[in-house]
Design a protein that fits this description.
Keywords: ATP-binding, Chloroplast, Cytoplasm, Ligase, Nucleotide-binding, Plastid, Transit peptide. It is found in: Cytoplasm; Plastid, Chloroplast. Belongs to the glutamine synthetase family. By secondary structure, the protein is of the alpha+beta class. The chain has a domain of 255 residues: Glutamine synthetase/guanido kinase, catalytic domain (Creatine Kinase, Chain A, domain 2), CATH 3.30.590.10. Strands 8, 9, 10, 11, 12, 13, 14 and 15 form an 8-stranded mixed sheet that branches. It is globular and about 70 Å long. The structure holds adenosine-5'-diphosphate (ADP) and manganese (II) ion (3 copies).
Length: 432
């Protein structure tokens, strides 16, 4: 592979030359993700020059690049819609694409579609048709132009949600008048781990061995501390382009592990945005040749697990006097601890050990500014007497439709008996 080296100013000029609405991602840029490793032998360029493009020796690949990046809008009104849905494990993402006759702005303008449920573990072979209902659309950062990603949920031909369709029930809860009036906000911290493709060992770790102990890696910079930043950054921009409400990102305590935050988003939107952000992350890691895992405890031992802390507030919690409602919500959550834990992700028992900034899975606890609790309340919230709570229990592989709707159900719709409430208040030292 021959590489083209250019000063970094030229790199910026190339960026601004892109047509305003074209995809900001070119395969050349994807190529640059990995050039750091490939440029080992070019030390004399490394400080002043930045590698900005790679050309394949085969001109066929260059022509493919041109086609992949081609803006088709001057030639046709047609667009490509990538229909995305959740597969049979409840965590795998599947997608397929189809042509739509003109650009659309709302999922209701899109046709329903179908797929072979027997190939995703979602239907028997003899009656395998599953119907996709378009529910949310995002701009497609990979194809650019007017092309879109479509988040769908799945139904039987008779119109019944199939068992793995968790969005349907969540949409019912978020459609409840009491819940709508409380305008529930969710800020989700999605953690994930990057693995080397063949050995399935974290990115940046020596194969068959361990890096130095945790401590220097969280939010760190440096080739010996930060592994996979290009993926995190490419994903950040792709999400902004797509219209996902991504609010930040950071390197994690375990090397090779990252986090991004989505939100605050209202109601069902939180789930749609997290699922779309996960799909984009799968696609980016696919292009990068790195494996994504959402396993809650990818490496046993003294290594942090991966969670999906869910920050939550209602309108009443955000208004003056809201702290009282936050405490009442915590009380309700304590009484339904088991239900929540069983819905917070597979394998979470390997993560919620009471170590590594987690609370033990078997006991509910809460505290102000305490990261060893099930639920944390921030100092600011306590000081201002209003704000939000952080549910630290959900695992990185949780289903955001389930977690967000269960939080709303437990804190807005569900009521404990007075007796249970009094007992729990005493136990948690909570006066409400
Ligand atoms: P942490 O300190 O736990 O690492 P982060 O900064 O990673 O927290 O994430 C906090 C999340 O909480 C962000 O996604 C943010 O948008 C969200 N958030 C902020 N205010 C609220 C609120 N009132 N209700 C719900 N979520 C909120
Ligand atoms: Mn965070
Ligand atoms: Mn984190
Ligand atoms: Mn957190």
């Amino acid at each position: 592979m021959a590489q083209i080296l250019a000063p970094s100013t030229q790199w910026q000029m190339r960026m601004t030359k892109n047509p305003a609405n074209a995809s900001p991602f070119t395969t050349k840029m994807w190529g640059s993700l990995f050039l750091k490793q490939k440029t080992k032998g070019t030390a004399k360029f490394s400080t002043k020059f930045r590698v900005c493009a790679s050309k394949s020796e085969s001109s066929t690949v260059n022509r493919l690049d041109d086609l992949l990046n081609m803006d088709i809008r001057p030639y046709t009104d047609k667009i490509i819609a990538e229909y995305v849905w959740i597969g049979g494990t409840g965590i795998d993402l599947r997608s397929k694409s189809r042509t739509i006759s003109k650009p659309v702005e709302h999922p209701s303008e899109l046709p329903k579609w179908n797929y072979d449920g027997s190939s995703t573990g979602q239907a028997p072979g003899e009656d395998s048709e599953v119907i996709l209902y378009p529910q949310a659309i995002f701009k497609d950062p990979f194809r650019g132009g007017n092309n879109i990603l479509v988040i769908c949920d799945s139904y039987t031909p008779a119109g019944e949600p199939i068992p793995t369709n968790k969005r349907h029930r969540a949409a019912e809860i978020f459609g409840n008048k009491k819940v709508i009036d409380e305008v529930p906000w969710f800020g989700i911290e999605q953690e994930y781990t990057l693995l080397q493709p063949n050995v399935k060992w974290p990115l940046g770790w020596p194969v068959g061995a361990y890096p130095g102990p945790q401590g220097p890696y969280y939010c760190a910079a440096g080739a010996d501390k930060s592994f996979g930043r290009d993926i995190s950054d490419a994903h950040y921009k792709a999400c902004l382009y797509a219209g996902i409400n991504i609010s930040g990102t950071n390197g994690e305590v375990m090397p090779g592990q990252w986090e991004y935050q989505v939100g605050p988003s209202v109601g069902i939107e939180a789930g749609d945005h997290i699922w779309c952000s996960r799909y984009i992350l799968e696609r980016i890691t696919e292009q990068a040749g790195v494996v994504l895992t959402l396993d809650p405890k990818p490496i046993e031992g003294d290594w942090n697990g991966a969670g999906c802390h869910t920050n939550y507030s209602t309108k009443s919690m955000r208004e003056d006097g809201g702290y009282e409602l936050i405490k009442k919500a915590i009380l309700n959550l304590s009484l339904r601890h088991k239900e929540h834990i069983s819905a917070y992700g597979e394998g979470n028992e390997r993560r919620l050990t009471g170590k590594h900034e987690t609370a033990n899975i078997n006991t509910f606890s809460w505290g102000v500014a305490n990261r060893g609790c099930s639920v944390r309340v921030g100092r600011d919230t306590e000081k201002q007497g209003k704000g939000y709570l952080e549910d630290r229990r959900p695992a990185s592989n949780m289903d955001p439709y389930i977690v967000t709707s269960l939080l709303a159900e437990t804190t807005i719709l569900w009521e404990p008996t007075l007796e249970a409430e009094a007992l729990a208040a005493q136990k948690l030292a909570l006066r409400v």
